[in-house]
Amino acid sequence: MQRELHDDHLLLYCTAGQGRLDYEGRRVPVSAGDVVVLPAGQAHSYASDHQRPWTVYWVHYAGLLSDTMTDWLAAKGGPVHRLGLNARLLALFDAQFGLRDQGSNWDAALHACHQLQFLLSHIAQMLGQAADSAGRLDIARIKGLMMAHIHDHIDLAALAEDAALSKYHFAKLFKAQTGQSPIHYFIELKMQQACYLLDTSRQPIKQVALNLGYEDAYYFSRLFKKVMGVSPARYRTGLHNI
């Protein structure tokens, strides 16, 4: 989608996959949990990623009261806000769109306006809470991103980019909050998933390794033993409990 000039505001919430937003000569990645607020008149274009297409909620709106709120939201660090997947926010979007089933009568339209006002104010509240926790990483969000890549790979650069930080600053904050480096934390998540697969399936160890993005089963076994203290084969037999 590309718009040089539009006369209403746009609110977009990405709930899965990823894409990108272009505005004012800048390209910003958009991924699951991101809220995009574009004021009226802001030239922009956006697109879904071909490899991991996004799922998005969006709503166009206008009105005198909405102008001030939208300008305030857009001024909070640009149009893309990394608020994460939030159950309350998802419920508010669902409730907003559920009003379509009531038809195009005046009562439904009035209800939709108030519902939208509540939705925007909730986003403003979330941004305020995020500002209060500035200087701290959202570990739950980072873990969610890691789990999304549990079957393949993700590097430090991608994790730092998602947090809008340099690799050095991201790694330093992450270790300060968790006591581990980001990559070691990711490897431990992978080994936890490996334990689950070894416990609940009859897959060969080579297949378990492939399921977790390791083409070299011997390397996977060495890594598993380093983290768990026993080899995958010994873990599966239960000898690790002796």
From TrEMBL:
It comes from the Bacteria. It holds the Pfam family AraC_binding. GO terms for molecular function: DNA-binding transcription factor activity; sequence-specific DNA binding. Signal peptide: none annotated. The keyword DNA-binding applies. CDD domains: cupin_MmsR-like_N. The keyword Transport does not apply. This is AraC-like DNA-binding protein. Residues 140-238 form the HTH araC/xylS-type domain. Keywords: Activator, DNA-binding, Transcription, Transcription regulation.
